[in-house]
Amino acid sequence: MNNKHTIIAFVEDKPGVLNRIASKWRQRGFNIESLAVGISETPGLSRMTFVVDGATTDVDQVVKQLKKLINVIKIVDITDEDMVSRELALIKVSANPPARSQIIEIVDIFRAGIVDVSKDSLIVEITGDEEKVNAIVELLQPFGIKEMVRTGKVSMLRGGQVSASLDEEEPVITD
Amino acid sequence: MNNKHTIIAFVEDKPGVLNRIASKWRQRGFNIESLAVGISETPGLSRMTFVVDGATTDVDQVVKQLKKLINVIKIVDITDEDMVSRELALIKVSANPPARSQIIEIVDIFRAGIVDVSKDSLIVEITGDEEKVNAIVELLQPFGIKEMVRTGKVSMLRGGQVSASLDEEEPVITD
């Protein structure tokens, strides 16, 4: 059963913030599946997106504990909201000339792109939700995946509402 | 002067890894500009990409200190290598009907995409290097950016060589 939760945290861009957050995760035994941290629309504020498994983690506790931390401005579980979710992956695939055209076909079907070519390999760039990225990885596997990097998921509410405006006091259902 | 360093770390997917790494960053006063953590091509191994400012941080020390940590399998500074770097951004822009066509023009020029539309806003998805993402953000700013999420940069060596094969013992030049 898929019980993954997507949490967004807005944190001040100050030394030690990530340490305090990671330390809480550790103390509580939270298992973080992916993490993305980058700048937000507000100078001085970073936006973190992380995914935790609700089957092994008390998500409500994650949110409550992190909310108490200094420099954490806002934290919301947007799992049950109507949202756009994307991740980016770079996949280096073994590709001798005969394999190359088959790989290009797969890339076209997925509307992915090829961002580097060498005599025996290609780098494929793909964006999409986790399922889409998993699907192309599965199809490229037989050619030989030399290396892969994935950004972790980022998410945003659909429509005009801003993600940070979600009411963080709402009870979080964890199972 | 741009003195940003891009570091890749391969870490075992175990509880507490991120905490140990973030704790080192804290102790040493390292200023992390972006961070992406996701699964790699090897089951049980996560790949972290982070960017530090070499002007304020002793990058050589970052690498040396983290290399000593348990569960850190490999860490390399790939800044001076020939690499592909990408990040993904979702940008929610205010867009009443008259503004919409102007925004679509900008999106087309950047080969970006529109992944959500409501009566007064659009979500733009873009992938590229940091400069490209910054450039579209600057052009969209006058319409009103309601929110933005960026994954942080991920990087991979061009050509057939695998990033993890880089010799980590090479001296790192920090300025």
Compact overview of the structure:
The structure is a homodimer of 175-residue chains. With 175 residues, chain A is α+β, with helices and mostly antiparallel strands. Chain A is 26% helix and 39% strand.
Describe this structure in words.
- The structure is a homodimer of 175-residue chains.
- With 175 residues, chain A is α+β, with helices and mostly antiparallel strands.
- Chain A has 2 domains: 4-83, ACT domain (Alpha-Beta Plaits); 85-154, Alpha-Beta Plaits (2-Layer Sandwich).
- Helix content of chain A is 26%, strand content 39%.
- The first copy, chain A, is built from 4 helices and 9 strands, in the order βαββαββαββαββ.
- The model of chain A has no long low-confidence stretch (mean pLDDT 90).
- Chains A and B meet through helix 1, strand 2, strand 5, strand 6 and strand 7 of A and helix 1, strand 2, strand 5, strand 6 and strand 7 of B.
